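Before the break, one more example. Copy the sequence into your notebook; we will annotate it together after we see the structure.
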Amino acid sequence: MNDSLSQLAVQIRTELIEVERVLGRINEGWRRAQRSADDFYLDSVALNLHGFYNGLERVFERIGVVVDGAKPIGENWHKTLLMQMAAEVTSVRPAVISSTTHDALDEYRAFRHVARRIYTFNLDAIKLEHLVTGAPEQFELVRRELLAFADFLDEQASDRL
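Here is what the structure looks like once it is written out:
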């Protein structure tokens, strides 16, 4: 279990680097869309917003499996997983993310669901703008919380040696 906790801490830190790269692509796509008025850039923004949440969700899934012993199943598993990460698991782990971060990320989860199911030319540019402008702040919040959780995992792994 020690190795799996240490490995998970490394995976969290690595995934955060990738998510930060995706955030850069979101911002660059948005800038290009604004400069050129070419809505094809909005497709890129939507795809990268999808990737932004997907990267975080991969981390949450790994935490669910490695630390909690299971990830949710069923039709609403994405929503349930996000709620699971905002809850403390008594005698196992603290909450991974705060309720504030949960609420903010839930918008990105919902958008991810929409982006997968509609044609990109039907996306609402105002909703995209809201998500794009909020993404850096939301990333910084979740980044801090996930890094603190990775530190917790490292401590747990070293305590069990």
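Residues 2-159 form a domain with the Four Helix Bundle (Hemerythrin (Met), subunit A) fold (CATH 1.20.120). The chain has five helices and no strands. Try to locate both features in your own notes.
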